[in-house]
DNA sequence: TCTGGGGTCCTAGGACCC
DNA sequence: TCTGGGGTCCTAGGACCC
């Protein structure tokens, strides 16, 4: 364990909303929401002026509008976000190569090797904040502590636009009064379960008996207890490879006709399989998710004998799983979302060995199989790379492109494979 | 008038193997 | 004829994070 507060967590404040205010001065100082509208959709990010009214990311637009009548809804300039965030990460990289980016707008740094160059962690945090403000124009909050968990909590406490250093020896005084919900891994459900047992602060959690927490929450309870006791062994590590790749599409309320299901799944499969092929990867387990009106959702999955990265094969497997999920329902419920995810990932050999599906197998007459599909996918990938994403596509996928979320936004949330 | 899209990890039961 | 114990994989569901 490092002996100084040499783990930093740097987190851009209300990132999407701050970028909009940076790009359009008329929005500065005003409550704004990126995404959503007073009639529907969800708010992706809220400015601090909007947060003061209780508006939060993930909230339905109509609720946000009710909480804050003066709220301005702006369409996101999604293509601008990634490059700006990348410039911030470059600034972090100037301090140390030990940067672990955990999302588009936040990262951990291990600065133990940088203190002799830049001074103590507090000075490094101040330097980062100054440079990001001057060179990118955005506010970034920084927490510094001996562990990752504490550094992350400190950056949340520092917001907005602040710096909090938890000096070694002062951890308990810092942690004990904080609400448990500030801890990494405590969401609404866990918060409620803990509250029912009178556990409201991190200090309460640290004082609680470990075995009771494990009975209540399983192994995560043990982990949580350790974090409350400030035992966090995790190191700053440059990011690992993705374990799954997926795509989803919200549909409104729709009747799940075979045509609709086929067309949406083609679109999703093309995105997922295309990303896999672009990285020479493939996966054996295909999982679909179907959400019904009322937010109830089911998943169905199948592990194949060989990994897939072919759009057509993925579409067919997904279609069969969705059919199965729909057949398991009573009546004919409307669906509101379809999703495909591929896991059990492996490197894809240069020649794809794709085994036929287990029976019963709905191969349609004349459909290409195995290496023919592989060649078809590769040539379509090449055409898209040259002429644009919509240049070519499988018929149902091209027909199925009805509005939806901009690709720029999808890419923001993606992990590198 | 229920609410996006991308992920991670954990649990529990059953199948199967040694 | 019934019986031990451990390990791995698969499937479905759920909590959580940004």
Automatic annotation (TrEMBL):
GO terms for molecular function: damaged DNA binding; DNA-directed DNA polymerase activity; magnesium ion binding. Its cofactor is Mg(2+). The active site is at 106. One of its GO terms (cellular component) is cytosol. Binds 2 magnesium ions per subunit. Keywords: Cytoplasm, DNA damage, DNA repair, DNA replication, DNA-binding, DNA-directed DNA polymerase, Magnesium, Metal-binding, Mutator protein, Nucleotidyltransferase, Transferase. Pfam families: IMS (PF00817), IMS_C (PF11799), IMS_HHH (PF11798). It catalyses: DNA(n) + a 2'-deoxyribonucleoside 5'-triphosphate = DNA(n+1) + diphosphate. GO terms for biological process: DNA repair; DNA-templated DNA replication; error-prone translesion synthesis; SOS response. Its EC number is 2.7.7.7. InterPro entries: DNA/RNA_pol_sf (IPR043502), DNA_pol_Y-fam_lit_finger_sf (IPR036775), DNA_pol_Y-fam_little_finger (IPR017961), DNA_polymerase-Y (IPR050116), DNApol_IV (IPR022880), PolY_HhH_motif (IPR024728), Rev_trsase/Diguanyl_cyclase (IPR043128), UmuC (IPR001126). It is found in: Cytoplasm. Residues 7-187 form the UmuC domain. PROSITE patterns: UMUC (PS50173). It is an enzyme of class 2 (transferase). Monomer. Poorly processive, error-prone DNA polymerase involved in untargeted mutagenesis. Copies undamaged DNA at stalled replication forks, which arise in vivo from mismatched or misaligned primer ends. These misaligned primers can be extended by PolIV. Exhibits no 3'-5' exonuclease (proofreading) activity. May be involved in translesional synthesis, in conjunction with the beta clamp from PolIII. NCBIfam families: PRK02406.1, PRK03858.1. Belongs to the DNA polymerase type-Y family. This is DNA polymerase IV.
């Amino acid at each position: 364990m490092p002996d100084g507060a040499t783990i930093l967590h740097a987190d851009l404040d209300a990132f999407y909303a701050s970028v909009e205010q940076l790009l359009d001065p008329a929005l500065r100082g005003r409550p704004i929401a990126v995404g959503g509208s007073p009639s529907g959709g969800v708010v992706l990010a809220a400015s601090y002026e909007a947060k003061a009214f209780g508006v939060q990311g993930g909230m339905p637009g109509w609720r946000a509008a009710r909480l804050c009548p003066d709220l301005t809804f702006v369409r996101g300039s999604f293509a601008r976000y990634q490059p700006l965030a990348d410039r911030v990460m470059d600034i972090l990289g100037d301090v140390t190569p030990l940067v672990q980016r955990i999302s588009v707008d936040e990262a951990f740094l291990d600065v133990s090797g940088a203190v002799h160059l830049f001074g103590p962690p507090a000075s490094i945090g101040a330097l980062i904040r100054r440079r990001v403000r001057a060179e990118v124009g955005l506010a970034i909050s920084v927490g510094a502590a001996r562990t990752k968990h504490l550094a992350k909590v400190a950056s949340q406490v520092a917001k907005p636009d602040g710096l909090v250093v938890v000096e070694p020896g002062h951890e308990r005084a810092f942690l004990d009064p904080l609400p448990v919900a500030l801890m990494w891994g405590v969401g609404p459900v866990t918060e409620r379960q803990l509250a029912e047992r009178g556990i409201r602060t991190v200090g309460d959690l640290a004082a609680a008996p470990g075995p009771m927490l494990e009975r209540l929450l399983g192994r995560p309870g043990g982990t949580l207890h350790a974090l409350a006791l400030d035992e966090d062994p995790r190191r700053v590590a440059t990011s690992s490879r993705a374990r799954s790749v997926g795509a989803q599409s919200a549909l409104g309320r729709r009747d799940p006709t075979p045509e609709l299901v086929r067309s949406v799944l083609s679109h999703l499969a093309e995105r997922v399989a295309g990303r896999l092929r672009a990285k020479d990867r493939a996966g054996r387990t295909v999982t679909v998710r179907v959400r019904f009106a009322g937010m109830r959702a089911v998943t169905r999955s199948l592990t194949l004998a060989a990994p897939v990265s072919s759009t057509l094969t993925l579409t067919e497997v997904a279609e069969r799983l969705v059919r199965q999920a729909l057949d398991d329902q009573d009546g004919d419920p409307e669906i509101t979302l379809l999703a495909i995810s591929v896991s059990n990932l492996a490197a894809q050999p240069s020649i794809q060995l794709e085994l036929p599906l287990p029976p019963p197998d709905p191969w349609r007459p004349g459909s290409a199989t195995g290496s023919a599909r592989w060649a078809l996918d590769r040539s379509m990938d090449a055409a898209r790379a040259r002429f644009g994403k919509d240049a070519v596509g499988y018929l149902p996928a091209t027909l199925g492109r009805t509005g939806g979320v901009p690709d720029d936004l999808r890419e923001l949330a993606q992990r590198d494979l």
